[in-house]
Design a protein that fits this description.
This protein has about 210 residues and is of the alpha+beta class. Helix content is about 40%, strand content about 20%. It has 2 domains: about 130 residues, PH-domain like; about 50 residues.
Length: about 210
Amino acid sequence: MITEYDDEPVRGLPGELPEGETLLWQGSPDWRLLARSAFFTRIVGLYFAGLVVLAIYNGSTSGVIATLIAGALGIGLLMLYAWLVGRTTVYTLTSRRVVMRVGVALNMCINLPLGKIGGANLRALGPVEGDLALQLIGKHNLGYMVLWPHARPWKLSHPEPMLRALPDAAVVGERLARAVAAIAPVDRAQEQVAPQADTMPAGLQGAIA
C-alpha cells in the first residue's frame, strides 16, 4: 500500500526533526499482542468454541460447520486488521514530543508535546510487554474515535492516547519519564497539542486540531 509516508524524510514523522530535537525511541505495536489485547481474539475464539459445543450437543452437523466457518472468518478478519494496524503505525519519542503516526487507510500524525503530558499509565501484557496510556494536561480536542484503537479504553469524555501492544513497554515508559522530566517549566506552559492530519479531509482536521 502506497501512502505519502513511503517517502517521509524521517520514518513516522511528517518532516525532518527541528534543530535541537533528538530521536529517543521508535516502535510499532506487536500485531499478535494487539489482536489479543485490543481486538479480543481469544475471547471471540472462546465464544465461537462455546457455540460449536452447543451445536454438537444439539446434534446439528450443519450448525457446527457454519459456526466453525463464521468463527474462522471473524477471527481471521480481526487478526488481519491487527496486522495492518501494526504495519502502518509508528510511535516516536523525541526530546520534545511523542508523535503517533496512525491510520490504516488514511494516515495521520498526532503531535503530543512532552510539556502537555502529565503522566503515563502502564498496563502490563506480559513480562515487558504492555500498553502505555498518556495523560494529557488541560483540555484537548482529540476525539476517542479518531484515536481508536490507540486510545485508553472507556476514557470517552477525556480520551487518553495510548501506545498499544509495545514489546518493550517498560523501557519506553522509563525513557518517556526521563524526557518529560527534562522539559523546563516555561516550555511546558508554551507547548500545545498539535495533531497533524495532512491526508485527512478538511472537516475532520478541524475536529481534532
